[in-house]
Amino acid sequence: MNALPILEPVTDETCCTPASRPALDAEQAKRRALVFKALADPNRLRLLSIIKAESSGSTCACDLIDPLDLSQPTVSHHLKILVDAGFLHREKRGTWAYYSLIPGALERAAGLLGSL
Amino acid sequence: MNALPILEPVTDETCCTPASRPALDAEQAKRRALVFKALADPNRLRLLSIIKAESSGSTCACDLIDPLDLSQPTVSHHLKILVDAGFLHREKRGTWAYYSLIPGALERAAGLLGSL
DNA sequence: CCCGAATATTGACCACCATCAATATATGCA
DNA sequence: TGCATATATTGATGGTGGTCAATATTCGGG
Lengths: 116, 116
What we know:
Chains A, B: One of its GO terms (molecular function) is DNA binding. Chains A, B: InterPro entries: ArsR-like_HTH (IPR011991), ArsR_HTH (IPR018334), HTH_ArsR_DNA-bd_dom (IPR001845), HTH_MetalResp_TranReg (IPR051081), WH-like_DNA-bd_sf (IPR036388), WH_DNA-bd_sf (IPR036390). Two copies of one chain form a homodimer. Chain A is of the alpha+beta class. In chain A, 42% of the residues lie in helices and 12% in strands. The first copy, chain A, has a single domain, classed as Arc Repressor Mutant, subunit A (Orthogonal Bundle). The first copy, chain A, has four helices and three strands, in the order ααβαββα. In chain A, strands 1-3-2 form a three-stranded antiparallel beta sheet. The first copy, chain A, is elongated, with a radius of gyration of 16 Å. At the A-B interface, α1, α2 and α4 of A face α1, α2 and α4 of B.
């Protein structure tokens, strides 16, 4: 289990960089690595990029298959990973699934680097 | 070939976020994913954290083995990945190897997220 | 010049991951 | 109700990655 969304909201871990900080313990390192694992795939980066570039807030999954050169199940798989990691929100409307960037998620992920 | 250090210096890719941007092409996505791959391991995050926390600029490799619970070859392996990815600088002094954060590397990696 | 110590490299092994075809699920519509 | 469509899940497969033991390399000192 440990179903905790990985990109947790702002906590003392993610902000307020003190001058010096004790090094990451194994547990924190593991959780943070999960965030970067989600980003460590070219196709997932492209998904985030496409969804971010959409002027409307959300993007239909059907519009995410052609741009990448992947099968529908594979795209669905990558989207799930991004949702689980806390980057994307999924909303089903009828048969369609719409994905949108969770506000601040990319910024929080970036913040994890500053607070190493 | 393609020995390009992954965390390239500041270019139009990494700064100046225009209002709208064409989505990442496959090539850019692949290169950026390499950066996050380097960060997608708990032990490598701990290495970066320890080296960053050192008050002196550089840290002896011999001081990086005990804190992690890994064999010497494995630590050496992770350090190489971080060097190749452009996060760490290695300087040999006699038999010892000293590692230091490349200034701005973490910030540039964080910037890759903002410019998706 | 040889020895010991610190680090890097090699080779092997196991776990995890990206991918696809096939199938399942769910929704809208006639 | 039954079919067509959009999406998710399952199962299998090839490839990648983290790890260690063993070995190689490099350097300083006696």
